[in-house]
Write a structure and sequence with these properties.
Strands 2-1-3-6 form a 4-stranded mixed β-sheet, with no helix packed on it. 0% of the residues lie in helices and 34% in strands. The chain is globular and about 30 Å long. The protein is built from no helices and 7 strands.
Length: 80
Amino acid sequence: MVVNVDNNFFAPASITIYVGDTVEWKRLNGFHNVRSDDGLFRFGDANGNVSNTWDTVSFTFTEPGIYPPTIVRRTADRGA
């Protein structure tokens, strides 16, 4: 399952996953991170913070459950 991440949206906005499914997030534009509210995963810069240095990250769900929504954090684009 691929989820595109852009400045104001995820596409698709919601997904259903099963044990063993891998979700891949692709950053299309902007400064973002991808994380689960429960701390299961956090992607972005080396510390998981908002960044434009990543293009694709993925996570394989290995346990059944209800996972809190994944959030994208965005800050203003930074100029040189």
